[in-house]
Specification:
mainly alpha, 88 residues, single chain, 3 helices
Length: 88
């Protein structure tokens, strides 16, 4: 499925979680939503990792010394830290 199709499906499922009266149906829908969100998270995590990996490979090539230096100048501002919060 395309991301846009998954978004449509999950949005409809969220609406149904709210309007369904049958508790068992709501629980089943919620489990499906949680599963889909996990799959989407894995998908984007893999894309992000691939992007970082390709950039690292590019920067390590000797012909890209200028870009390597520019990258490390930017890195010095950010520092070696990890985040639990994402800002857009």
């Amino acid at each position: 499925m395309k991301i846009s199709e998954i978004e449509t499906s999950v949005t409809a499922a969220l609406i149904n979680v709210v309007i369904k009266e049958n508790e068992k149906e709501r629980e089943t829908l919620q489990k499906s939503i949680d599963n889909q969100i996990s799959i989407i998270g894995d998908f984007y995590a893999n894309l992000f990792f691939d992007k970082c990996s390709k950039k690292a490979e590019f920067l390590m090539h000797e012909s890209n010394r200028k870009q390597f230096k520019e990258f490390y100048d930017k890195f010095e501002k950010v520092g070696a830290r990890f985040s639990e919060q994402i800002e857009e």
